[in-house]
Amino acid sequence: MAAESNAVHGGGRRHVLLFPLPYQGHINPMFRLAGLLHARGFAVTVFHTHFNAPDPARHPQYRFVPVPDGTSGPAPVAIEDVVAQILALTGACESEFRDRLAAVLEEYSRDAVACLIADAHLLPIFEVAAKLAVPTLALRTGSAACCACFLAYPMLFEKGYLPVKESRRDMPVSELPPYRVRDLVVLSGDERGGVRELLARAVTAVKLSSGLILNTFDALERRELDGLRRDLAVPVFDIGPLHKFSPAGDSSLLRQDRSCLEWLDARAPASALYVSFGRLACMSPDDLVETAWGIAGSGVPFLWVVRPGMVRGSARQELPEGFEAATRGRGMVVAWAPQEEVLRHRAVGGFWTHNGWNSTTESVCEGVPMLCRPYFGDQMGNARYVEHVWRVGVEVGGELERGAVEAAIRLLMTGEDGAEMRARAGELKKAAEECTGKGGSSCLAIDKLVTHMMSLQH
Ligand code: UDX
Fold first, then answer.
1. Which of 188, 255, 406, 448 could form a disulfide linkage to 297, CB 3.0–4.6 angstroms apart?
2. Which InterPro entries match (predicted)?
3. What is the pTM of this model?
4. Pocket of ligand 1, beta carbon within 6 A
5. Is residue 183 scored above 80 in pLDDT?
């Protein structure tokens, strides 16, 4: 390793300060980044909100600094409420963060602190750091294509793509291929409000920072990365897929049920479908019923994550009566799984996913083809890339209906189309391994990132 690409400098470890957005899909990549930078010699300090706080006992090698965020009551369920919560809690922790950052700077001595890396959704945190002359880097946990969509938001309104009109949902967005209007980051009918504000703040945060870190890699998004490098004045570090450099299991907010790995051990290679819709997506009670009977009718072995709160308006996640008997010996349902290990398991032959960016990259890296059922935010765009660019999956669109679900599962798991997708996914897995291997693009980007961090001036 080159001398300048580790963080032991002038006799002491340099500190890196981190501040994740407190949701699973954002916490995981930040902790993976923490692991990577710690391995490069940085001392890691994690600032975090009280909401969804990490457990310091699981990371004794890091220091944790809680920042009061003014939240109270249960976590929001509807995605509109999540957007409102992000805007509220980032505002609420601003002054609390200022005090704590100032105290940490005094304690460590300014020169020992390389920089602060914060989630790009935390604009007030970037502003506080700028006022205290601490250099910042922005972590965007989505794809490069999604980041380009954020940058293009004003143009999308100017040119009339947004707000979305029902009649134009299938219209291609010629400035952002392969997106169609329906693939853009919008919430149903709400694109003038909180979402627009959230995206504008993320763009400002990136522009305020000294660099952008993306959990993606060259073989997956070369064209999109080139576009960002052209459009942004700050350096862009494509250091993904981060989970290949450092696992995030310890940052799981829910207890992972590891018994499903044993269950998978008893299954034939590539025979089982893994079904999970991530941490935030919610389905209607009717969709749960159609999903269940579609899975049952397919005859395919399955591991299904039915997480607490996954069904809208229902405290209990009840599967339909008779489902267990109909699938006995062929399926397993858990509340939360060790997903990285599940996708790596040889028995898993397909992933029915909501296409959160972490789930998408975790699947791509294990050569697992996907059934795509995106719910909100960047998930539609991710599904578009899976189906039309990388061609390693197929979307389950429209209203969920058990017959269509059954057919989609069979197509992926036992059909010829599915076999072709699996073969392409295998190629993509190899390409990912090249990027993360010695001398690969992501390794070189990590070296550049560390060198950049060591060169930042207060
Ligand atoms: C959210 C948005 O949905 C996503 O589009 C955005 O890119 C990040 O924030 P989330 O819904 O949580 O993320 O999905 P995803 O990005 O896929 O992240 C979920 C994480 O939880 C993954 O790292 C996955 O490995 C983990 N997970 C999921 C588990 O550990 N166990 C499970 O059972 C399911």
1. 406
2. UDP_glucos_trans
3. 0.95
4. 23-26, 28, 141-142, 252, 256, 276, 278-281, 305, 336-337, 339-340, 356-359, 362, 377-379
5. yes
Cite the active site residues: 26, 119
Q: How far is the centre of ligand 1, averaged over its atoms, from the C-alpha of 58 (Å)?
A: 20
Q: For residue range 350-378, what is the model confidence (pLDDT) as tens digits?
A: 999 999 999 999 999 999 999 999 999 99
Tell me: pLDDT of 255 over 60. Answer: yes
Per-residue pLDDT of 302-341, as tens digits, reads 999 999 889 987 666 689 999 999 999 999 999 999 999 9
Burial class (CB in 10 A: 0-12, 13-18, 19+), 197: middle
Complex-level ipTM: 0.98
Atom of ligand 1 nearest to the CA of 337: 33
In this structure, the residue with its CA closest to atom 3 of ligand 1 is 356
- Cα 132 to averaged position of ligand 1 atoms, centre (Å): 33
Q: Tell me the pLDDT band of 187, cut-offs 50, 70 and 90.
A: low
* Residue 252 alpha carbon, nearest atom of ligand 1: 30
